[in-house]
Amino acid sequence: MLKIGTRGSHLATTQAGHMRDALIAHGYPSELHIVKTAGDVSHAPVERIGVGVFTSALRDALFDGEVDVAVHSFKDLPTAPEPRTYLIVPEREDHREALIARDGLTLDTLPKGAKVGTSAPRRVSQLRALRPDLEILPLRGNIETRMGRVESGEMDAIVLAYAGLVRGGFADRATQVFDAEVFMPAPAQGALAVECRVDDTALREGLDKLLHADSFACAAAERQVLATLEAGCTAPVAAHATIADGTITLRAGVFALDGSKQLIEEATGTDARELGTQLAQTLIGRGAAEIMQ
């Protein structure tokens, strides 16, 4: 029986549950195994404690033999390669951003000075550029907790990844799903990363059955932008890619936290990492480092 390592939140167990079911369907009996992390008991914003506390705990459990497979949100993983793991990306969920607002409001119809919750610098910077009048407030906790801030009237709206809403069964709560060119998502948003130990040859064959090559290529191109910019997953950097007939179209942006400046570039190519590197170097040449500071 394979043990699938996951955090204990509703979203994390739902995501890992899909991977468990897929492995079982391919003949690999599996069960979920909850891995406790320091981030689960901290009350500090994730931008302060870092998503690394979650991903490193899962990887430690994998290396220690506590679990056989680890399931992550790909956007949360460090961009540096981990030579001890074998990683695949299954078919990606919707990568767009979503607004959950009171009274069915959208970003355009929120009243002046409305309170909008998000702690991600990438979202903060884009919100400030689109609606400089809004009051942006910090937001943390699981999906249910975050949505509760709107239900209680504490906030007028929040911004979340639409993929999490879909996977958690809350898609109908979104009052607006943004076009990715209007409100750009995080690199690899909506993509899962499924890992096993690199020396587990038999299990690698099992994970290969879950691989979705196009999703992996698009997510890899987006994450290569981050890696080349030497920016962490909470930096004000956004990217999204699409693929058709083997050609990847990659769009990425870097934003000033106060919403005053943004650099956006687009490029096409067939090699994901080469394309991500090329586009990031273009952004660097235009002053991306200064804007991110």
TrEMBL record:
Keywords (alphabetical) are: Porphyrin biosynthesis, Transferase
Reaction(s) catalysed by this chain, per the record, are: 4 porphobilinogen + H2O = hydroxymethylbilane + 4 NH4(+)
Specify the superkingdom.
Bacteria
A GO cellular component annotated for this chain's UniProt record is: cytoplasm
According to its UniProt record, the EC number is: 2.5.1.61
Q: GO BP, one example?
A: protoporphyrinogen IX biosynthetic process
The cofactor(s) it depends on are: dipyrromethane
Instruction: Identify the residues that the record assigns to the Porphobilinogen deaminase C-terminal domain, covering every copy.
Output: 217-284
As stated in the Swiss-Prot or TrEMBL entry, residues carrying the post-translational modification S-(dipyrrolylmethanemethyl)cysteine are: 233
Gene3D superfamilies given in the database record? Periplasmic binding protein-like II, Porphobilinogen deaminase, C-terminal domain
Which residue numbers delimit the Porphobilinogen deaminase N-terminal domain? 2-204
GO molecular-function terms, A-Z: hydroxymethylbilane synthase activity
Cofactor info, note text: Binds 1 dipyrromethane group covalently.
Task: Quote the InterPro entries the UniProt record gives.
Answer: HemC (IPR000860), Porphobilin_deaminase_cofac_BS (IPR022419), Porphobilin_deaminase_N (IPR022417), Porphobilinogen_deaminase_C (IPR022418), Porphobilinogen_deaminase_C_sf (IPR036803)
| Assembly description | Monomer.
Family as reported in the entry's similarity comment: Belongs to the HMBS family.
Q: What else is known?
A: The porphobilinogen subunits are added to the dipyrromethane group.
Q: What does this protein do?
A: Tetrapolymerization of the monopyrrole PBG into the hydroxymethylbilane pre-uroporphyrinogen in several discrete steps.
This protein is called what? Answer: Porphobilinogen deaminase
Taxonomic lineage of the native organism: Bacteria, Bacillati, Actinomycetota, Actinomycetes, Mycobacteriales
